[in-house]
Protein 1
Amino acid sequence: MRHVATQANASEPKPLTEPVLLILTSLADQPRHGYGLIKDIESLSGGRIRMSTGTLFGALRRLLADGWIERFQQEDTSRQKQAYRLTTVGRGQLQQELDRMKQLTRAGFARLRLGESI
Amino acid sequence: MKRAYEFLLRLYPRDYRAMFATEMSSAFEEASAERRGQGRGVYVRFVMAELMELTIGAGVEWIAKLSTDSSVRGRSLPDRLLMRPPGVSWSRHYTGALLNVPEEVSEAQERAELLVERMVHSISQHDFKGARLYSDEERQARGKLRSLREKYNIGD
């Protein structure tokens, strides 16, 4: 019998981890520095998520390596407060993830309604 | 507490530290100042979580470093300690990189290095006129770099 393996499409977007999704969302409207990101993520998640510096900068390093974000020198901040902003690739990845979540949310609500009507 | 944090930061790979250590310490300081004002219990929990995740993060970063080819990693995380320009002593460069020199200085340094590369390339192509041009530009770039180093009190 011939075994046919299914190959993952390289261009297919992979689901993002929660820290990455929150970082990208936080950077979507404006560049932010480390502590600014921590505060904004806390407010975005309604105080549920308080990201540690270790987790945040580890994720930032990976995002920089993937070219989803870039370092950005803000004129009014010191080098200790290096800012980060989304690249076009990062913006595209965030858009794809939000579309995927929207689709999933819609399907989830539709099934809930279906379950209630039975 | 900051001392404990900075001690644990030493567990991270050198290139990671050169890139993020100053920012991480600064973010930690701001976050701890805020948490300290929210009560002793909150502050202790915050510090424990930070130190624990910092230790785990160091392990994760070492795995990432060891499992990634240095040329690939260098594209996003250049090891500034390894990029010693000609004419700068090892100790001077090492101190500068660890101190996280200002962007303006590192840019001037990169420009001077680029001009040297171009000059060497021109010589290898027997383009001596071009090499002389790059040599003049490089001299000017070194002069600018020297004045920037003086401005920020780096090196010398």
Protein 2
Amino acid sequence: MSELAAHPGAAPRTGDDAREASQAVTATPIAITGIGLVSALGSELGATWRAFCDGDASGIRTLAADDPRRDRASDATPPPDCARAGWVRGFSPRDRVRSPQLRRMDWGSRMLAAAARSAFEDAGLLPLDGELREAAAIVAGSCFGNQRETATYLERVFTSGLGAGQPMLFPNLVLNAAGGYAAIELGIEGPNLSLSANEASGESALAGALDLLHGGTCAVACAGGFDEIGGIYLEALAERRLLHPDSLPPEAAARARRSGRGLRGAIVPGEGAAMLLLEPLERARARGARVYALLRGARTATVAGPAHLLPPDASAAARRMLEVAGPGAVDAVFGCSDGTAVRAAIDAAVVQAIAEQQAARPAYVPFRRLCGEFGAAGALGTALAALAVHAGAVPRGLGDAPPAASAAATAGVRCALVVGVARGGLVAPVVVAAAG
Amino acid sequence: MRECDQAPSQPHAARARRVLVTGMGAISAAGNGVAAFAERLRGSETRIREISLFDTTGLRVRVAGEAALPARTPLLPRMAHVRASRTDCLALCALAEALAHAAIAPDLSGLDRTRVGVAVGSSTGGMLETEAFYETRLHHRRAGALRAKLSSTTVAAPADLVAAATGALGPRMAPSTACSSSAIAIAVAALWIRSGAADVVLTGGADALARMTLTGFHALQALSPEPCRPFDVERKGLSLGEGAGMLVLESAEHAARRGVPAIAEVAGAGLSCDASHLTAPHPEARGAVHALWRALAGAAVAPGSIDYLNAHGTGTPQNDAAESRAIREVFGEAAPRLPISSTKGLIGHLLGAAGAVEAIASLIAIRDGFVPPTVGLRQPDPAFALDFVSGAARERDVAVAVSSSYGFGGNNCSLVLRRATDV
């Protein structure tokens, strides 16, 4: 039994052998019964799925002066100067968030609270009863959290003096503000875990939620994450010459033009939130819930490498990823590729390694081409993977196949692997499979 | 009111692998190392002083608990010097000590690295360096070298660096739940060991002082102009601090195979959320009650068998009142006899590192048999009606201790630590 306080419904485990215990953990099937989304693909489930199926990349765009995304009533902090990015579309926080705290929430918190509410709603769990409020967990991953209000706050402090800190803004600057607001929005008093795993924050949150569920710490978990486009993220990418030239902030673009360096980056930044409602399959079936897919596995592990770099050896990363993901056929790979060579190589190595283990090559889905790259994008990828498994197919033609992939299978998709990687050699595979 | 001699019911009492603490390391205003911390814990002198890390002009409050980083950070990979933040360096200082204490080589040689996890919490990560970047940019100066530090700006950076420095290849997580970050990291680490996901986990947390947090709490009027005085009738707010606490958690079987002694067992952990307000405690302290009760249930111990409670005890009027209410609610008739103290009067509030460093204070209490006093506490608030230890350490056999951490966002975590010989 977990040392964390158990919740009724948790399966007891005994035995001292670690691997035996680990296998016991994976034997408890966890179902995905609700999905809540806010992204460049769309602001709700149906629109997102349609855009995904259509390969609609129009969410990757330059914000016009009158773009609805600039609505100051929805997002009080102006978006940063970033020419081309995966800006969310069609999202009106006032229509999705009911808490009176809405006016205090930053943009990321608004996206996350809306996605969390939608996930519970989609799962048919609203209104929450008192017991479930205490037994539900929220697990939210984010690379940077609230970047833009942090910048606003620091600018004020550094231009007007240290005594000019804004009391209304400061509480929003912690990474877990969004998770806290989501809990307030839904009245959820169970475990509330926020984390960062840089580029794999969404996948890591799902792994954390699976740990909590398997440990019996909660009855259901709403997990995923959010990220906004902010100056620090853009600067960090620009500093490493990874940002696509069309997405550079003006100052970085000027620097790149002067030096001739930094013009070959590939990453198009994005923003959004994705939350998945997870619960034991037995519980879901007992209440007659629709099951999109099973979350067959979600774990984090490390491959050796420097703290600030992605796994440098693509083959080693792929091997570790599949080792951690566990055995079983994979019909589709939702890749980590954001256009950079290192991520493309990891995707190719994963596809190749899977192809060597099974008769059919998996379909390859580079979904970030439609929504841009952000720390919690893996949660969106997992949501799309679950929907694809539920539909039994993935759309064709999201872009070029990775070097090692052949023609993608687009039907008969019963199991999908979401490839999560982050700096520090982190690998965070997520596996979703058909429920039965 | 619950019976204080009965353990909270636990639906599934069967226990899997026990989680032992086999190493600990700490750095804070109380010094670099657990020995220095243990010595200061017995005393009544605060280590909260005037801030020297940055200019505090314009602030009414200018004191905090600053750590003295060694000239050379142990374990820091050569290539990481240019990118590492102060928070990263604090984490590595504590890690080096914890590994040595646990008789584990810095490169984990002799261990199966794939079975070694990393769970390190932080609230602000490399904020101090991020501030420097912003400040330089705002004043139209070239941010040049500072941009490299942006790689360490995320709260995940200390965990990434711990993994890279040691070669740990197991699961990794960087919880960031404000002031409960490292307590939750310890809870997650214990969960991994219990479930068999890892045999050893390097866990804890780190946070450096930063102008954002100092000015933020200042703006909220939550800072005490003098070193904080938790639970005192004249308490005026909190004092910030910085530091890191790292633990080596290990399954009992793994520790036995290595032949290393354990300091204590992580017997239980309780997580909860207030779900009421981002900064103010729940008016009925529901979140704190849930966390305490879940931790006791997880450990299968009765409230009456707790020998020491290391309180969150920030020194703000709201926190101390809500926490006292939760203690009275959970411990019932045992509450007035439960020795309670806060270490924040000694070293300040370490934010994301607080949970880990305060867990280490609790482990020291178990190991050395004393309850630390609450530095700065002169006249306990009579409204609380609890046994706050003050003035000097109280000699006492501590077999089971509870350490509580509550954070912005309403994120709460209580840990139950039990003497290893009682396992």
